[in-house]
Design a protein that fits this description.
Layout lengths: L18 E13 L3 E7 L4 E7 L5 H9 L5 E10 L8 E12 L17 H6 L1 H4 L3 H23 L3 E2 L5 E2 L11 E4 L2 E5 L4 H9 L4 E9 L12 E10 L4 H31 L12 E3 H12 L13 H15 L3 E5 L12 E2 L2 E2 L1 E6 L2 E8 L4 H10 L7 H5 L8 E7 H9 L4 H4 L12
Parallel strand pairs: 3-5, 6-10, 12-13
Antiparallel strand pairs: 1-2, 1-4, 2-3, 4-5, 7-9, 8-9, 10-11, 11-18, 13-16, 14-15, 16-17, 17-18
Helix pairs in contact: 4-6, 4-11, 7-8
């Protein structure tokens, strides 16, 4: 008797000497003089199907002789433990094999060889590229990472919301936004859920987060930029300073890395040669100008005074080196940016924006801040940026009372890239979008 339900290959060891049913892709075929071997994979593991060549197996032998690699099959048969089988010490002796879909005889790329095709070709055939174990595992780990981030917030009674991505005004500035025709008037794809996160604070929701798409019209072709990515954003009320925001983020990232390490730490080190390091708290903190002074004194890194209003790419890398050398920390908060380089909705104290960037492994992963919640001051700061009319609807949120609040956003894809030491965001995204790529 064959089991009615499909068994995932990773669970087959529970069914020795029983009849089983599996579904999967044909990973390899060896058609020898007296026996045929078919290796089937279903994304959870691989198993060998063994078919002796004899009169009783004539139908099965004929089916196997016609199967092409990467066709999909349904196999029913008896599972046996066999120490002579190198693949997991087991095999299935089939009583039926059904080809559920047929693969063309020649694949456009060898998905088993990650370096066998150019990146553009791999992206053109991403559905094949992701059959590679190295690539497919990225998204299992990413899923665990996001699950842990969510769980941390759920445990602290945050509410997950979903904000609109078609908006009437740019949420950061007039640049770097995609304009769309919305029933004969202008609309934009959201650069972030920032305005709506703060609307939730004005609504009294207290603690919210969102995981969703973010759009940036940056004509950039670096390994860390993309025109659409998945953002993990949160906002919470009743804070005393942006230190509260930094503390929540360091707690959340520490929790996430601990969970990922427990579930996938060994696998990440085995496949991606990257250890998962659970940090200790608090993360080091340093002011922007103090950091540039240290980088000059300690590492001989010189930049023009005009460039010290923000972190250069090289300064981000050296900030990581400094944090490791001095604090044995992969993380470092950088604070005290000039107001010209921060959004108008960042609270200021003595003219200094009350926010930060967080650097991890030499790359900025977060901009966070305490927000300006006082209507008159917020309106004035919007006017300074020339945004008063564009953000009139947003300013309305603060006319009827809004508690002190703050928050931050993290790019899930960039976080994945850094966690696994991947060379590019293209590897860390299910489907990459860039200035020259809109397909598949």
């Amino acid at each position: 008797m064959i089991m009615n339900k499909r068994i995932e290959i990773k669970n087959l060891k529970e069914y020795y000497n029983q009849n089983v049913k599996i579904h999967g892709f044909v990973d390899s075929i060896r058609d020898l003089q007296y026996v045929q071997f078919v290796v089937v994979t279903d994304g959870t593991g691989k198993v060998q199907v063994t078919i002796e060549k004899n009169e009783g197996n004539a139908v099965l032998n004929e089916i196997v002789s016609q199967i092409t690699i990467q066709s999909t099959v349904k196999v029913e048969g008896k599972l046996l433990e066999n120490e002579k089988v190198k693949l997991n010490g087991m095999e299935i002796l089939p009583i039926s094999i059904e080809v559920t879909s047929h693969c063309a005889s020649e694949l456009p790329l060898n998905y088993k060889d990650r370096n066998g095709a150019e990146m553009d070709t791999r992206l053109d055939y991403r559905f094949l590229d992701l059959r590679n174990e190295y690539n497919a595992t990225i998204f299992k780990i990413q899923s665990k990472m996001v699950q842990a981030l969510r769980q941390f917030l759920y445990e602290r009674e945050f509410t997950e919301i979903h904000t609109p991505k078609l908006i009437a005004a740019a949420s950061e500035s007039g640049a770097e936004v995609f304009e769309v025709n919305y029933f004969n008037r202008k609309a934009y794809l959201a650069q972030s859920p920032q305005f709506y996160k703060q609307m939730a604070m004005a609504a009294g929701m207290g603690r919210i987060f969102e995981v969703g798409p973010v759009f940036r019209a940056e004509n950039s072709n670096t390994n860390r930029h993309t025109t659409e990515f998945t953002g993990f954003d949160l906002e919470f009320s009743y804070i005393d300073s942006f230190e509260d925001v930094m503390h929540l983020e360091e707690e959340m990232l520490t929790y996430m890395l601990k969970e990922v390490k427990e579930s996938y730490g060994d696998l990440i080190e085995q496949i991606y040669s990257k250890p998962v390091i659970v940090p200790t708290m608090p993360f080091p903190r340093i002011k922007l100008l103090d950091l540039y002074q240290i980088l000059e004194e300690k590492y001989g890194y010189h930049v023009e005074e005009a460039a010290k209003v923000d972190l250069t790419t090289e300064a981000e890398k050296l900030a990581y080196q400094y944090a490791m050398d001095t604090y044995h920390s992969e993380f470092i908060f950088v604070t005290d940016y000039p107001k010209d380089k921060r959004a108008f909705y960042h609270m200021r104290k003595d003219g200094v924006p009350q926010g930060y960037d967080l650097i991890w492994r030499g790359v900025e992963i977060t901009t966070g801040a305490q927000r300006e919640h006082r209507y008159e001051i917020l309106k004035q700061q919007a006017e300074e940026k020339g945004l008063k009319d564009d953000v009139a609807f947003y300013l309305t949120f603060f006319q009827y009372g809004c508690p002190p609040h703050g928050g931050f956003g993290i790019g899930v894809d960039r976080l994945t890239m850094l966690l696994l030491g991947l060379p590019s965001l293209k590897e860390a995204m299910f489907l990459f979008r860039g200035p020259n790529r809109l397909n598949p």
